[in-house]
Write a structure and sequence with these properties.
mainly alpha
Length: 86
Amino acid sequence: MGEKKRKEEARKGGFIFEKKNYRFMLIGAAVIALGFILMVGGGSDDPNVFNPDIYSWRRIRLAPAFILIGFGIEVYAILLNPNKED
């Protein structure tokens, strides 16, 4: 019986994930993008002048935390079963 059900679902086609999964994937991608945006900047126009802004708290701690949180949301979105009854 399980083999028959699997073949029927394979013929049905459609998307792999449900709308809820894609919503969480977009949220995760937005958090990752925000992390990379927070990491931008801090350079110097003159290569002979050192700019200490490159070691700011925002670039060293906050931005990587946002990126890791975004990847965690992506993993959650992939493993989420939207058909599960609560």
